[in-house]
């Protein structure tokens, strides 16, 4: 059964999505005349004839090989405009966007085209053609900011802008995710396949994501020079396990260079550097080493000593030969000239190896024009008008502004002027114009606009408004008189009617520099003085009546409030059993509770009655059994008994209870009251109908299977409860025993954290064993266990375990499931570090979740269970990550949520693990084989 279903799942997921991947590819042959399937790759290409109305198709003389794509290019006019292609994207998915340029026509040097390439408002590259027959490739890795992106060409300094191909390839999972992706795109500088068999680059179908892996035999100037002697090329036909984070193609990993004389050195130029970069090295041992052979090496960078220490032992780091190991620097500053060398360590028998590497530059994402402004401009563009001005595409302001608008130089840019005089625009003036708040000039004169003048009272910066020579009807709105900076208002030759607002006429008389033109509106009148007074008189009368009315209403409200509060007081005293007056608790409870709003004392007899003689046990708390009960007023309760109650101070207990009951948060189980008798202490909590999270995840009888989104909501709730304990309470409270059985679910399946704050009390009670860390096996923070330093980060560790349980549906400790590692932490960590999140997903969730969303949680969970507490995130950051995952799962996320940016920044590089593993070698200065 298991086998069959597994096969079925694999079959279902794998086959269609590989096909799916390809159909998700966008491949545009610019200047091409027909659609076709590329013979070598089998990929469908479409001609841009129907999507690009601008520019012209040009036949290329010097065709490159046989590829159809390069037989034509599209040339655009050399003018002040930009020319754009709009590509559809899935918001927040990561893509490779690639444009290529083959000019193909020989011209005299210095007159080859040189122009700018933009991705939305972000400057992508300066395209500088220097050889007619070379294909220039520009590649950007982005996380799509919205449903579409614009690739624009403009601003030629020589020649005219042109383009040969435009491609977009979606990426999977967390490939190419960085901490900075909210603010930066990744511009690929180099992606090199070492030991390549030919000069040909490797790409689709060898790389299912169609990345281009340049051959190291490529003969570009200054490309991979300064090669150390003894460098040899090796290859294998064995399969390589590449399932980590970035999935380089097996074919790339099957070749490598090795430094047989102990070192590998290279030098190359990085376009547009110096800059901050993301750098990946891809290693796999592809030689069969002898039993006594080792391959260990270090990177040697004289100018960057920080980067020179880590020792790479490929087979060991990768956990075996023929397996990928991909250490990375997620943010490294590199110069234009990159020289690097790998040198073998003294105790290594073999020289260094390198299979591939990839370097991308961080390019800051530039702000697009304010979205409200853009949609207002679009409202104008989509009005009926058969003119060229509506065809301009891309961002209205960047890199060049649309001809009919003027923009501010702020970030983001705002529209300051709209100039559509005599453009044959028909219809009504769009309402949306009121959103263009930065507008100072609006010229809509000489069109066929009809309808009334819309509300533009928010355009407080407006200086010049031209609406003359249209067919506008209706009154002249009075707000026009209140626009503080208005200097010119022209409305001649329309069909406006009614009266000219007095404020406008007055403004004219005030000798302000104000011009009003209103001739040619037969029904528009100037106001007469007497009418003016009448209007004023009426309005005073109305005001007086209004005033009286309001007074009356206010008075009535007050008296009502009074009676209702009296009624409430009464109600309270009736329900003495749930909320007694303080006098009551003082009398019975020993006078320790002074604050009326805190939990109150409930006599044992009441509890015995409520729980029917403690007959229904619903669980086991940290200190004793928990019973179900129902108070006289029908309120359902959970009574937590504390069995081992020592003779320790009653006062202490009561103080503790008082403290706890002041803590109110929707994600914390509320404490209702307490009971203390000679040998019994009890805490009374609100009853949570859906029991513990533990039962829902691990109890196989439980039919209420939690789907992933439900788990995420629960995680978010619980995290918020913990965050409140850590940051919302003074003094802050460390839970100390975070686990799935302390996360309770209410009737709506929202989670509340229970059992918090008892810690201090417990410690007092257990002074004789205070050296034993409190907590539950499997959830216990190892650092706390080791040195008894309790911080909020101990709760974070435990919460990380809870997250792993939510993902995997597995128990925190089990020798059956995890073998000798026995803990979910070790098991999950090793799989996640290998990039294999699929293997840890709860089988009952399979097929219904977005893996990307699981990744977000997996990543943050692994950070939570970091060995050192300082490496763990705060609850705040965890909440953001969970919210991020929820957005991804629901697929309704908006990109500008500032939350996600912080959540993203919690992502961790593999570098940490890379250094962690090797640091023992370095600390004592000697190079002994690392103990692993
Ligand atoms: C090419 O394919 C695109 C997209 O499928 C389609 O819109 C267009 O009409 C096709 N063009 C030709 C010339 O067949
Ligand atoms: C693989 O390496 C062998 C030498 O070990 C060489 O003869 C062969 O040409 C190489 N193959 C490729 C595809 O590079
Ligand atoms: C992309 O991810 C899906 C699962 O979400 C997987 O089935 C597919 O094989 C992946 N595509 C590639 C090219 O790896
Ligand atoms: C990389 O590090 C530098 C210096 O530490 C920092 O200024 C920069 O913001 C970081 N991130 C990126 C994407 O450049
Ligand atoms: C490996 O080293 C051990 C001890 O150094 C030696 O006894 C053994 O012969 C070596 N094996 C090979 C295959 O070289
Ligand atoms: C404005 O003119 C358009 C035709 O150009 C017409 O469809 C529309 O009904 C007119 N609106 C008003 C309010 O007259």
TrEMBL record:
* UniProt-listed Enzyme Commission number(s): 2.7.11.1
Cited Pfam families = LRR_1, Malectin_like, PK_Tyr_Ser-Thr
Where's the Protein kinase domain? 612-886
Q: Which UniProt keywords apply?
A: Leucine-rich repeat, Membrane, Repeat, Signal, Transmembrane, Transmembrane helix
Q: Which residues form a coiled coil?
A: none
- Topology in the lipid bilayer: Single-pass membrane protein
Is the keyword Oxidoreductase assigned to this protein?
A: no
Ranges that cross the membrane: 534-555
Q: What is its main location?
A: membrane
- Indicate where this protein resides in the cell: Membrane
- Signal sequence, renumbered to the chain: 1-20
Q: Keyword check for Transit peptide, yes or no.
A: no
Enzyme class of the recorded protein, top EC level: transferase
Please list the reactions this protein catalyses. L-seryl-[protein] + ATP = O-phospho-L-seryl-[protein] + ADP + H(+); L-threonyl-[protein] + ATP = O-phospho-L-threonyl-[protein] + ADP + H(+)
- This protein is called non-specific serine/threonine protein kinase
Instruction: Provide the species name.
Output: Rehmannia glutinosa
């Amino acid at each position: 059964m298991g086998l069959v279903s597994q096969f079925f799942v694999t079959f279902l997921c794998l086959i269609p999505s590989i096909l799916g991947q390809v159909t998700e590819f966008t491949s545009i042959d610019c200047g091409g005349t027909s659609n076709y399937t590329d013979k070598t790759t089998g990929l469908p290409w479409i001609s841009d004839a129907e999507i690009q109305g601008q520019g012209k198709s040009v036949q290329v003389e010097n065709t490159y090989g046989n590829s159809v794509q390069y037989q034509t290019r599209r040339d655009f006019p050399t003018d002040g405009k930009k020319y754009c292609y709009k590509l559809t994207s899935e918001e927040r998915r990561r893509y490779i966007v690639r444009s290529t340029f083959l000019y193909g026509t020989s011209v005299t040097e210095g007159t080859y085209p040189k122009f700018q390439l933009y991705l939305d408002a972000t400057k992508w590259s300066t395209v500088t053609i220097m050889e007619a027959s070379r294909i220039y490739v520009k590649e950007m890795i982005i996380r799509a900011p919205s449903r579409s992106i614009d690739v624009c060409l403009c601003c030629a300094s020589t020649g005219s802008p042109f383009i040969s191909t435009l491609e977009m390839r979606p990426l999977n999972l967390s490939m190419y995710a960085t901490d900075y992706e909210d603010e930066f795109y990744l511009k690929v500088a180099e992606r090199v396949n070492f030991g390549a068999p030919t000069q040909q680059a490797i790409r689709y179908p060898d790389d299912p994501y169609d990345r281009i892996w340049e051959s190291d035999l490529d003969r570009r100037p200054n490309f991979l020079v300064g090669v150390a002697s003894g460098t040899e090329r090796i290859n294998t036909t064995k399969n390589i396990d590449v399932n980590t984070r970035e999935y380089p193609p097996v074919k790339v990993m099957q070749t490598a260079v090795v430094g047989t004389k102990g070192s590998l050195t290279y030098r190359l130029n990085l376009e547009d550097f110096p800059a901050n970069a993301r750098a990946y090295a891809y290693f796999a041992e592809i030689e069969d080493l002898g039993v006594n052979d080792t391959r260990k090496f270090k990177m040697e960078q004289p100018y960057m000593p920080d980067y020179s220490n880590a020792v790479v032992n490929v087979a060991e780091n990768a956990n075996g030969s023929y397996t990928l190991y991909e250490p990375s620097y997620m943010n490294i500053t590199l110069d234009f000239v990159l020289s690097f060398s790998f040198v073998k360590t003294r105790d290594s028998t073999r020289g260094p190896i390198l299979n591939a590497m990839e370097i991308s530059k961080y390019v800051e994402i530039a702000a697009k024009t304010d979205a409200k402004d853009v949609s207002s401009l679009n409202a104008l563009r989509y009005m009926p008008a058969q003119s060229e001005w509506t065809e301009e595409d891309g961002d209205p302001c960047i890199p060049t502004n649309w001809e009919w608008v003027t923009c501010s130089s702020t970030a983001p840019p705002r529209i300051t002027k709209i100039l559509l005089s005599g453009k044959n625009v028909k219809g009504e003036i769009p309402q949306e114009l009121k959103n263009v708040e930065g507008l100072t000039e609006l010229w809509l004169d000489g069109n066929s606009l009809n309808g009334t003048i819309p509300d533009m009272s928010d355009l407080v910066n407006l200086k010049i408004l031209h609406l003359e020579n249209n067919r506008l009807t209706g009154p002249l709105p009075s707000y026009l008189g209140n626009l503080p900076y208005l200097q010119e208002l022209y409305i001649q030759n329309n069909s406006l009617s009614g009266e000219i607002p007095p404020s406008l006429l007055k403004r004219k008389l005030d000798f302000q520099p104000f011009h009003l033109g209103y001739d040619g509106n037969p029904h528009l009148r100037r106001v007469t003085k007497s009418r003016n007074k009448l209007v004023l008189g009426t309005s005073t009368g109305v005001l007086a009546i209004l005033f009286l009315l309001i007074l009356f209403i206010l008075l009535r409200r007050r008296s009502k409030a009074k009676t209702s509060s009296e009624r409430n007081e009464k109600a309270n005293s009736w329900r003495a059993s749930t909320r007694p007056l303080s006098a009551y608790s003082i009398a019975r409870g020993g006078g320790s509770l002074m604050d009326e709003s805190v939990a109150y004392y409930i006599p044992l007899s009441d509890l015995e009655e409520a729980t029917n003689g403690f007959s229904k046990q619903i669980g086991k708390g940290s200190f004793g059994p928990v019973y179900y009960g129902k108070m006289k007023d029908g309120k359902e309760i959970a009574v937590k008994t504390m069995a081992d109650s020592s003779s320790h101070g009653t006062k202490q207990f009561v103080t503790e209870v008082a403290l706890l009951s002041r803590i109110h948060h929707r994600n914390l189980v509320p404490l209702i009251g307490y009971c203390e008798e000679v040998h019994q202490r009890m805490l009374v909590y609100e009853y949570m109908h859906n029991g513990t999270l533990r039962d829902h995840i691990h109890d196989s009888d439980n039919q209420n299977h939690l789907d992933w989104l439900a788990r995420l909501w629960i995680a978010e709730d619980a995290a918020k409860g913990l965050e409140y304990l850590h940051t919302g309470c003074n003094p802050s409270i460390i839970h100390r025993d975070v686990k799935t059985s302390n996360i309770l679910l209410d009737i709506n399946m929202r989670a509340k954290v229970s059992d918090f704050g008892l810690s201090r009390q417990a410690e007092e009670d257990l002074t004789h064993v205070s050296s034993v860390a409190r907590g539950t096996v499997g959830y216990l923070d190892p650092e706390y266990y080791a040195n008894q330093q309790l911080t909020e980060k101990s709760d974070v560790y435990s919460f990380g375990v809870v997250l792993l349980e939510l993902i995997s549906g597995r128990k925190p400790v089990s020798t059956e499931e995890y073998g000798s590692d026995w803990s979910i932490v070790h098991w999950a960590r090793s799989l996640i570090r290998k990039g294999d999140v699929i293997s840890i997903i709860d089988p009952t969730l399979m097929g219904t979740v977005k893996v990307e969303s699981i990744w977000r949680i997996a990543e943050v969970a692994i950070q939570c269970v970091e060995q050192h507490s300082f490496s763990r995130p705060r609850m705040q950051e965890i909440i953001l990550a969970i919210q991020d995952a929820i957005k991804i799962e629901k697929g309704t996320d908006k990109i500008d949520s500032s939350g996600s940016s912080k959540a993203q920044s919690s992502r961790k590089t593999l570098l940490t693990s890379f250094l962690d593993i090797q640091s023992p070698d370095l600390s004592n200065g000697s190079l002994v084989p690392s103990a692993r």
